[in-house]
């Protein structure tokens, strides 16, 4: 028996660092990932697709977002089981009970809206654990697994849950008790545990997997191996499930850090950023550390401005940026300033070299002054 395990579509997601054009492309990419997922299901001859929570970003979405999303799900040629998660729980405002969802819901969509066993077909069951609020007092999956009777002989039962995994030795009833779930796996009562919430593809233990998000949602220093779905083979003879990640995402959020000490380092950093592929689908968050002169800082600012026109977005990584701009005497003299302007520049230089709280602001002001008086560095 083969199926596709996915989660955390978060349809309707927005990102503050994307302008209107990039956000529109990002939104379309999240829908396109559903279509590619459907192609994977068809190519792999999967029996069904299970989406382990957070299908939608929020229960308060525009009707058009819901309708367009369901139109894409309708193109998947097999049943699609949707589990409500913490972003889209089955509360009073739930999308799954809304008029717009009922109107546009395709025939192949089944909402796992009750805890317990749902039959896929004779011999195959889903043990579902939907969320009914954003902050449940206890983990729905641990409760559902604990309450379920053992399946009949020969029945393949797949647990479907959402939420964080309880670390070994820890105690928190709001997290999935992997030890308790694993005991049911070891006993053969469960054949696979499909989880959502973690956006990176993760094997928690044999038979327990997070599929990750099918399209990237965070930068790669926090979210690794996202953009995939899992093709899961569960042998009829009782053997262990085989899991194969298949990439369906097309975007990338890249976090990069560069130490700088001169023109050569600036050139190398810009070259590295320029070498990233698929720039219209790539967001870069970049941090710089070290000390550079006015010319190097002006060149860096000009190059970053040029890169912003090519990438989906280029953000300064504030937490990882500690770049001092200390001009040499020759650079300051090259500005050819006189009178009050020269005095102001000298004062800024003193503040920048002091290393005090205002040093960064003074360095930035000097770099801007250099760019304004040396227009050739901006072209």
TrEMBL record:
UniProt-listed Pfam families: Metallophos
The Calcineurin-like phosphoesterase domain, residue ranges: 1-103
Keywords assigned by UniProt, alphabetized: Exonuclease, Hydrolase, Nuclease
Molecular-function annotations in GO: exonuclease activity
InterPro entries, per database record: Calcineurin-like_PHP, DNA_Repair-Maintenance_Comp, Metallo-depent_PP-like, Mre11_N, UCP033093_metalloPase
Family designation: Belongs to the SbcD family.
Protein's name in the database: Nuclease SbcCD subunit D
Organism: Tsukamurella paurometabola (strain ATCC 8368 / DSM 20162 / CCUG 35730 / CIP 100753 / JCM 10117 / KCTC 9821 / NBRC 16120 / NCIMB 702349 / NCTC 13040) (Corynebacterium paurometabolum)
